[in-house]
Write a structure and sequence with these properties.
Elements lengths: L3 H6 L43 H13 L3 H6 L2 E6 L3 E6 L4 E6 L4 E6 L4 E6 L2 E2 L3 H23 L9 E10 L5 E9 L9 E7 L4 E8 L9 E4 L1 E6 L2 E7 L2 E9 L11
Antiparallel strand pairs: 1-2, 1-14, 2-3, 3-4, 4-5, 5-6, 7-8, 8-9, 9-10, 10-11, 12-13, 13-14
Length: about 260
């Protein structure tokens, strides 16, 4: 059996929260990007007409600041520990995901692109077909949530997103920020949500976000920072969400394929 430690050894160097994020689309792997957009083309289905040029300009600036579109597209394996609750390993190129949940001793080996996979809980593999499908769907929802908390700034021009410029605001500490608003068109688990992201114009990095359960709301359900950006492979990722931390972030070019096949 592959123990949890193997999750991180295999890398080479170079409760879901109260919300289920709307981007089940999140690419589910890499989006097919054919819309025009220079060095950062939008995903098919991005609401180009409903989005405004200033917002798109800032989204492209964010992508460049994090390492650039080519670096993001070429990044294959990403691993992280989600707030101490779950460990995830994502093959961004194929959609394979390994999720380990110590709380209920469950391990998910799923493909988010194909809605397929295997699940083990309490040391026993789920064999009933209907139950297995339900667990696979649960695993996909976990991935949607947990990955968006890590890589949201790379997904500003995803399928179904309408991106608008919401003006200027301030970050904690008083620094000025450029604000973008994300709304969603009939995508994901909760398309009624909206988000606001706060970009530091000094370095074009997202430094905070706010979540609104309903797009009609004026006051967010929460707002949290995006801090402590670190270089991982050729991209930047942030793990500091204030009171919560995304830890053990890893990016790799190669991992042991058995991590996606064996419990």
């Amino acid at each position: 059996m592959l123990v949890c430690a193997a999750f991180f050894v295999a890398f080479t160097m170079k409760k879901l929260l109260l919300i289920l994020l709307p981007l089940a689309l999140l690419g589910c792997g890499d989006n097919n990007n054919t819309n025009q957009g220079g060095d950062n083309p939008a995903a098919d289905g991005f609401d180009q007409e409903g989005s405004d040029p200033q917002a798109i300009m800032w989204a492209d600036a964010v992508m460049r600041a994090q390492g650039g579109r080519e670096a993001w597209d070429n990044t294959r394996y990403i691993g992280w520990n989600f707030f101490g609750n779950r460990k995830l390993l994502w093959d961004k190129h194929t959609g394979r995901v390994r999720i380990e949940v110590p709380k209920d001793s469950s391990i998910y080996l799923i493909n988010i692109n194909e809605d397929s996979g295997r699940v083990q809980t309490a040391g026993k593999e789920i064999t009933d077909e209907q139950e297995r499908k339900e667990w696979i769907e649960k695993g996909k929802q976990i991935w949607v949530n947990d990955s968006y908390w890590l890589v949201m700034p790379y997904k500003l021009k995803d399928s179904g997103v309408t991106l608008t410029y919401a003006g200027k605001d301030t970050l904690t500490g008083g620094k000025e920020a450029e604000v973008l608003e994300l709304r969603f068109k009939e995508v994901g688990y909760t398309p009624q949500n909206k988000y606001r992201v706060y970009i530091d114009p000094a370095d074009s990095l997202v430094k905070a976000w706010a979540y609104y359960e309903n797009a009609a709301m004026d006051t967010p359900n929460f707002r949290s920072p995006w801090q402590d950006y670190q270089q991982h492979g050729d991209i930047l990722l942030s793990g500091d969400r204030g009171e919560r931390q995304i830890s053990d972030i890893r990016v790799a070019e190669n991992v042991d394929g058995k991590l996606f096949e064996e419990f």
